[in-house]
Amino acid sequence: MYHHVVFVPAHPPYFRQPSMTRLLILPGIFAVATISVWLMLYNAPGWSDATAEGGTTSWELPSQFENFTTLAVKFKAYKNEHYAYISMLFTCTYLYKQTFAIPGSFLLNIIAGAVFGMLPGFIACCILTTLGSTLCYLFSEMFGREYVLYYFGERLTYLQQKIDDNNQRLLPFLLFARMFPISPSWLLNIVAPFLNIPLPIFAASAFVGLAPYNFVCVQAGSILSELKSWDDVFSSTTMLNMFSMALIPLVYAFFVRPRADSKTSALLTAVAEGMPNNNQPKRLGRRYCGLTRIFSKLARPPPPPTDVVGLLKNVETV
């Protein structure tokens, strides 16, 4: 009797090392973006003249609160002379940071409030946060598959289970994840393409969910002269308010949405039970049939997402 010998790999296929092609594409894009931002900083027009009074002519990041307030004042004075350049520099820097999941939203949001003001800075930060998160989503999907599957393969199984459990209330669930003060939004930006999260829902969650955080930081920048330390930005009261706002999507998802769904189902049942018999006019019957089809589509739950783990096992390196 012959026995077939089956070789079981030590690790699943989706834990293979990334191929050389994928290893070079994403770092290449990162290098080009880094050089571009550096060239914009290096060729800043008139920065030395505009900041000569402060005695510092470089773009170094502030390490203390007093240094940051001084730098913010310099930026504001520089904006009056070179508004187009400072706006383009801020846009490129923000997109660069957000696209490659680099920490720094806190400082950039405060700079936006100090330089551009409360309302323009808040609108700009919300738009740039959404665009940068969307670029991170797309780059991760197109060029970072092997990286994500290799380094976050086991976490994807847990995250997929959470997404599947909240499939009926995906947007409120993502809004809660965004609004929660200590939630790692950068991780969600990277792994979202592999959790079957549609791009429109992802972008909406980034725009709305990160708005409270952007608002707090931009508002702090707009009243920078009244602040004494970084602790004044995220005080216990501010953190409590942000946590309370994060609970709003959960309240909608677990209390408001189920009641709305139950009312829709009850309405569908009432329409179905009120269907006319064959002795009634056909025109009235067609109306009821049309209503039934409409409500059935509204009440029908969306199809479950494709099993990500099954897809990951079939991934082949390029």
From TrEMBL:
Domain VTT: start-end pairs: 102-222
- Its main subcellular localisation, reduced to a broad class, is membrane
Keyword terms of this UniProt record: Membrane, Transmembrane, Transmembrane helix
> Where found, per UniProt?
Membrane
Task: Kindly give the InterPro entries that the UniProt entry links to this protein.
Answer: TM41A/B, VTT_dom
Q: Please give the PANTHER family that the UniProt record associates with this protein.
A: PTHR43220, TRANSMEMBRANE PROTEIN 41A
The entry's family comment says: Belongs to the TMEM41 family.
Q: What is this protein called?
A: Golgi apparatus membrane protein TVP38
State the species of origin: Panagrellus redivivus
